[in-house]
Design brief:
Elements: H1 7-24, H2 41-54, H3 70-80, H4 86-90, H5 96-106, H6 109-120, E1 126-129, E2 149-153, E3 156-167, E4 174-181, E5 190-196, E6 202-206, E7 219-230, H7 241-277, E8 279-280, E9 283-284, H8 289-316, H9 323-348, H10 359-369, H11 376-397
Parallel strand pairs: 1-4, 2-4
Antiparallel strand pairs: 2-3, 3-7, 4-5, 6-7, 8-9
Helix pairs in contact: 1-2, 1-3, 3-7, 5-6, 5-7, 7-8, 7-9, 7-10, 8-9, 9-10, 9-11
């Protein structure tokens, strides 16, 4: 595998890092937040205007509409993640980054012109409507349980159902809605639709407070009642929704790893600075093995996480969906980043659990990351099934 980062990505990444460190980080103390603690669109729009001026808006998508390779994207997105606000300012944040990737790969020229352009420019936030409420018996980590339905009605599709934990739904202008098809020609599969938001047929019923606070609009529960979608806003082919979900989710899991690694690198910088300045028992904290060893372990975990990300990125660049590799990377990196964030809090003691630095926020954000885009346990279960299947295949070949 070739993990070498090309010069163009090095140059883009350097500009992104400079912008995040010099322009974005001061916004971490900005009080323009909603009651959930998430940044208000007013603040996001202001940062994005500065990102456009600096030439770092949506840096992983080039002016001609082509994407950086996954290896190049990894380098750039890690730099954007040096602040929890960096991906918002540079338009590399979930769910928009994953939605742009999906639409870029599956969308028709007409859908790209209507929806993708405004997303790439950073003038529209988006939401991905897939997960459903557990008390409704709907789809979570198992999309085959999807109960939201769609059916044809003339030159429209009609969608009914419920969705939950829909990141950014409140305030989004573009939605990708996934529903199980009731049509025979869909062969029991699912469909995806592009919709303009807000739409009165999609009603937000709850926006709970959550442990993470980095994403505008938080994570809403919505009810969809007789949503009428023009037939030409069907994404791809009917019945192929589950396949398209994998087109989106495999690289999206890895993008999360990239961004949160950037945050943990920054948390390590802050904790290291604290440990090298703070004294206790007549020497600096880092000179106490209990503290110094935690920072040393963090350095090891950061390096391993980075290698894991570039390994998976190189697989995706071969054209493989990389579902196995993305599952391995999601588990390994999310668990490593949790150790890093926890160690940074511990090194800083009381200061580490305050909002004096972004360390405590990084801890909260990474804790949530261990759940979304598939909890650790779901990925391990999936990997175990593949291990068993490979064993059976080997036994069959041996006769």
């Amino acid at each position: 595998m070739d993990f070498a980062v090309p010069d163009r990505a090095l140059e883009i990444g350097a500009r992104v890092e400079k912008f995040v460190r010099e322009v974005v980080i001061p916004y971490e103390k900005d009080g323009r937040r909603d009651h959930h603690g998430a940044p208000l669109d007013e603040m996001v729009d202001e940062m994005r205007e500065k990102a456009r001026a600096a030439g770092v808006m949506t840096p992983h998508i080039l002016p001609d509409g082509s994407h950086l390779t996954q290896v190049e994207t990894a380098y750039v997105l890690i730099k954007s993640g040096l602040s929890p606000l960096g991906p918002l300012a540079c338009n590399t944040m979930a769910p928009d980054e994953g939605n742009m990737y999906l639409l870029g790969h599956v969308g028709s020229p007409e859908l790209k012109d209507k929806f993708l352009k405004q997303m790439v420019s950073g003038h529209a936030r988006s939401a991905f409507f897939m997960t459903e409420p557990a008390d409704w018996g709907g789809a979570g980590s198992d999309p085959s349980m999807m109960k939201t339905t769609c059916r044809k009605d003339g030159n429209h599709w009609v969608v009914n159902g419920k969705k939950t934990f829909i990141t950014g739904a409140d305030g989004a202008k573009v939605g990708i809605v996934m529903a199980a098809s009731e049509e025979e020609d869909s062969k029991g599969g699912a469909c995806m639709f592009l919709v303009d938001l807000p739409d009165p047929a999609i009603r937000i019923v709850d926006v709970p407070n959550t442990i993470d606070t980095s994403m505008p609009g938080s994570h809403a529960t919505v009810e969809i009642e007789n949503l009428r979608v023009p037939a030409d806003q069907l994404l791809g082919q009917p019945g192929e929704g589950f396949k398209y979900a994998q087109v989106r989710l495999s690289p999206a899991r890895l993008s999360h790893c990239m961004r949160w690694l950037g945050c943990c690198i920054r948390a390590q910088e802050i904790a290291t600075d604290y440990a090298c300045r703070r004294e206790a028992f007549r020497k600096t904290l880092i000179d106490h093995e209990g503290v110094g060893f935690m920072l040393a372990q963090n350095k090891i975990d950061i390096q391993q996480a980075e290698l894991m990300i570039y390994w998976c990125a190189s697989v995706l660049d071969t054209g493989d969906l990389g579902t196995t590799e993305s599952s391995i990377s999601k588990v390994a990196v999310s668990e490593a980043l949790m150790r890093i964030a926890d160690n940074c809090v511990q090194v800083m003691g009381g200061t580490g659990v305050t909002d004096k630095t972004i360390v405590e926020q990084v801890y909260r954000e990474v804790r949530a990351f261990r759940i979304y885009d598939g909890p650790t346990e779901v990925h391990k279960w999936s990997l175990a099934k593949k291990i068993k299947r490979q064993w059976r295949d080997a036994q069959a070949q041996d006769g």
